[in-house]
Write a structure and sequence with these properties.
This is Esterase YqiA. It comes from Salinimonas sediminis. This protein is of the alpha/beta class. It has one domain: Alpha/Beta hydrolase fold, catalytic domain (Rossmann fold). The chain is built from eight helices and eight strands, in the order βαβααβαβαββαβαβα. A six-stranded parallel beta sheet has the order 2-1-3-4-7-8, sandwiched between helices. Strands 5-6 form a two-stranded antiparallel sheet. A hairpin with a 6-residue loop joins strand 5 and strand 6. The longest helix has 13 residues. The chain is globular, with a radius of gyration of 15 Å.
Length: about 190
């Protein structure tokens, strides 16, 4: 049995279309993989402690090198984890500087999946910036899937940051990464699971 971590994005959940597609594909094609899809806190300032606690409670995730799939904000967090613990990551339309993007989200929100109300405050940006990985120790440990039609994030930021990584750039698409399920065999090969 091997373990794989999936990190969803901001305002998302384990019930998101991508998370569920990932779970279904691995259940069908790689039943020996135990997929972990934690519900990440809506509060950006709490996510680091949550991830640290999750990895401490699940040492099997890092025992043979962390393997993680991260979407959007989950991609930003996946980069942080791989830089801290080693391993490999597949990033889907990853956020590169979410502490800049979320400045426009300061205020009250409701997670559309969980209906949990929460607030974003300016201090959250400092906590998020502490997780930044401007220089990657091992860029070859990343496969980055980008679509140029991403309406939420400028794909060129990720293209620049991960230029020494394995980049897969598709014209068009959107932030959800259209036809994501078609990428799952490539994702499994890259993660060697």
């Amino acid at each position: 049995m091997s373990d794989l971590l999936y990190l969803h994005g901001f305002l998302s959940s384990p019930q998101s279309v991508k998370a569920q597609a990932t779970a279904q594909w691995f259940a069908q094609h790689r039943p020996h993989i135990r997929l972990h899809i934690p519900q990440l806190s809506n509060f950006p300032g709490k996510v680091k402690a949550q991830l640290d606690d999750y990895l401490a409670a699940h040492p099997e995730l890092t025992a043979q090198g962390l393997k993680v799939i991260g979407s959007s904000m989950g991609g930003y967090l996946a980069s942080y984890l791989v830089e801290q613990h080693g391993g490999r990551a597949v990033l889907i339309n990853p956020a590169v500087r979410p502490y800049e993007l979320l400045l426009g989200y300061v205020g009250n929100h409701v997670n559309p999946y969980t209906q949990e109300p929460f607030s974003i405050v300016n201090e959250d940006m400092d906590r998020l910036q502490q997780l930044d990985t401007p220089l990657l120790k091992h860029p070859e440990n990343y496969l980055v899937l980008l679509q140029t039609g991403d309406e939420t994030l400028d794909y060129r930021q990720a293209q620049q940051k991960y230029q020494a990584s394995q980049l897969h750039i598709e014209q068009g698409g959107d932030h959800s990464f259209v036809n994501y399920s078609n990428q799952l065999p490539k994702i499994a090969r890259f993660l060697a699971v």
